[in-house]
Design brief:
Strand content: 15-25%
Radius of gyration: 17 Å
Order of helices and strands: HEEHEEEHEEEEEH
Number of domains: 1
Largest sheet: 6 strands, mixed
Strand order of the largest sheet: 3-4-5-6-7-8
CATH class: Alpha Beta
Helix content: 25-40%
CATH superfamily: tt1808, chain A
CATH topology: tt1808, chain A
CATH architecture: Alpha-Beta Complex
Distance between the termini: 51 Å
Shape: globular
Number of strands: 10
Length: 188
């Protein structure tokens, strides 16, 4: 069996045709992003965030928390796979093709994804007017919060507060507690 033909210009259809080989494939601004399976720290960080976001969203009914893999396309010929994302509330389970706006996109940094997360994906989410883009850095124990108009991130190391709906109480995440959970500190 020969090597697969590499297209000159990547399209969403070409990316979807790639083999299921354990890697995550995304297409952002015409650039194919290929990342390996996530690490244990990455997975623990995602789970710690889910444990905080999901109860808040269920109670407030602001939106629905979803995780990747997910073939999101905020515009033609792109595939986005944020680690976690919140969509406006809906009755039926979403089809990826029906999602055209996000309330939050979250990426957990890994050594191989920092450039993509901080530059390429960040710019894409800002152009799409995603109100909040969080880049979670477990090694640095901080969160970079980006909003559409930001030129620089807000660096959060103590508390992350999110208020998507003025009528609802904010979600407040104690970041020291979150990262202690990720790194298994204080457990016995």
């Amino acid at each position: 069996m020969g090597m697969p033909q590499v297209p000159r210009v990547w399209t969403a259809a070409a990316v979807r045709a790639l083999p299921a080989d354990g890697r995550r494939y995304e297409l952002v601004d015409g650039e194919l992003l290929v990342t390996p399976s996530p690490t244990g720290v990455h997975q623990r960080t995602i789970m710690a965030l889910i444990r905080r976001l999901d109860p808040y969203l269920r109670h407030s009914e602001i939106g629905e928390l979803l995780i990747s893999p997910a073939d999101l396309s905020l515009s033609a010929d792109e595939l986005l796979q944020p680690d976690l994302f919140v969509v406006p509330p809906r009755r039926a389970p979403p089809r990826w093709s029906e999602i055209n706006s996000l309330l939050i996109a979250v990426e957990v940094l890994s050594p191989g994804t920092a450039r993509y997360d901080r530059l390429l994906k960040r710019r894409r989410y800002q152009r799409a007017q995603v109100p909040e883009y969080w880049i979670v850095d477990p090694d640095g124990r901080l969160v970079e919060r980006w909003r559409p108009e930001d030129q620089r991130p807000e660096i959060l190391s103590e508390t992350l507060e999110w208020k998507a709906d003025p009528a609802a109480a904010p979600l407040v995440i104690d970041l020291a507690e979150l990262f202690a959970e990720v790194w298994g500190e204080g457990e016995r």
